[in-house]
Amino acid sequence: MTLKVKLSFSYGSRMALDDVEFSTDRGELLAIIGPNGAGKSTLLKCMVGILNGDGTVSLNGRELTSMKPRERAKLITYVPQTSLPEFAFTIEEFVEMATYTTRGDVESALKRVGLWERRREPITFLSGGEYQMALIARALAQGSEVILLDEPTSHLDVNHALLVMELLKELKEEKIIVAVLHDVNLALGYADRLLVLNEGKKVWEGKPDNLEPKILEEVYGIRADIVEVGGKILLIAGLSKV
User: Fold this and answer.
1) Comparing C-alpha atoms, which of 192, 102, 108, 179 is closest to residue 147?
2) Which of 86, 129, 170, 188 satisfies CB 3.0 to 4.6 Å to 233 for a cystine?
3) Are residues 171 and 223 in the same domain?
4) Could you tell me the pTM of the whole model?
5) DSSP notation for 158-221
6) Does residue 204 share a domain with residue 124?
7) For 127-166, what is each residue's pLDDT tens digit?
C-alpha cells in the first residue's frame, strides 16, 4: 500500500507549502520534522482535506482529494495536536464519535491502547499521555488505512512519549503512519524515513542514518552533531555562534 503526495498551499499571498512531494508505504513510519512555521501541520491538514491544497493525494492510485468527506474518512484520518476535551464524555463515547462514518471497532481500538477497562470513566479523568492514547484509539476505531498525527508526543513526559512512539512502531505494520514530530531525537530513533521541511519547502528526505548535521544546522539555525549511542542515533545540539 502506497501513499503519494504532491501539494502546495497558500494563506493569502504567503506560500505555506511549495510543491511538497513524497511517498510512503505501509510498514514504514514517516516522520516530518522542521522548525515552527515550516508547514508541517499545514501539510497534514491538506492531506486529510481540512485545508484545500493544490495538488494530489493518492492511496494505491485512488485520488483522495476529490472524494467526499465520508468516503475519504474510510481511507485517511487525522489526529490533531493534543487539546484537552471540554465535555465529560466517557472514554468509550469519545472514541465512538469517530466511527459515525465507518462503523469501526471501538472495543478493539480501546484494547489496543490499554483503555478498555476504563472505558466508562469520563475522558476528563485522563492524564495528557492517556488522552493522547484515546486520540489514537479514535483514529484506530475509524478504521482508516492512513493515520496522520500532528505532534503526538507534544507536552508528554518521557515515559508517555516513548509509549506513544512504541505504539506507532507497532501500527506501521498495519497502517500507513505519518507523524509530525517536534522532538528530533524521537524522529531519529523511531522513524524509518524523515521528511525535513523549512519555509514550506522540502529540504531533505531519507533514512535517519543518512541525515547530515549540516541539514539540521541550516534548518534550525543551530550547531548540530549526530552521534550513535547504544545503537541509537542522537542529535547533540547547541546554539549557533552566528
Assistant:
1) 179
2) 188
3) yes
4) 0.92
5) HHHHHHHHHHHHHHTTTSEEEEE-S-HHHHHHH-SEEEEEETTEEEEEE-GGG--HHHHHHHH-
6) no
7) 888 888 899 998 899 888 999 999 999 888 899 899 999 9
